[in-house]
Amino acid sequence: MGFSETKDASGVLVIRVEGQLIVGNRGELKELVQRALDAGERKLLLDFGATGYIDSSGLGALVSISKKVREEGGELRLAGLNDDLRSLFELTKLDTLFAIAETPAQALARF
Length: 111
Prior knowledge:
Layout: E1 2-7, E2 13-21, H1 26-38, E3 43-54, H2 56-71, E4 75-79, H3 83-91, E5 99-101, H4 104-109
Parallel strand pairs: 2-3, 3-4, 4-5
Antiparallel strand pairs: 1-2
Helix pairs in contact: 1-2
């Protein structure tokens, strides 16, 4: 469980969420995104291809991150949601808040 970050050739910061996004690690993700914004990053992609579960606090952290990125003039996209996570985003109507792509490559092409 954790996060890794890489920079795409086009300059997009890709943050891979591995395992779960839950109350125990949501703060780490928020801090990682804040450090990226402080460093001048404005295009961020959260890759959930290796994520099996997101709890309510994780969803809340994503909403908070989305707001912060918008306030800083940035763009945030999500990719790689499995069927269960996609259903969760649809049930909570968060699919209307986030730009969600099937794969990281599709998300990167839309920046």
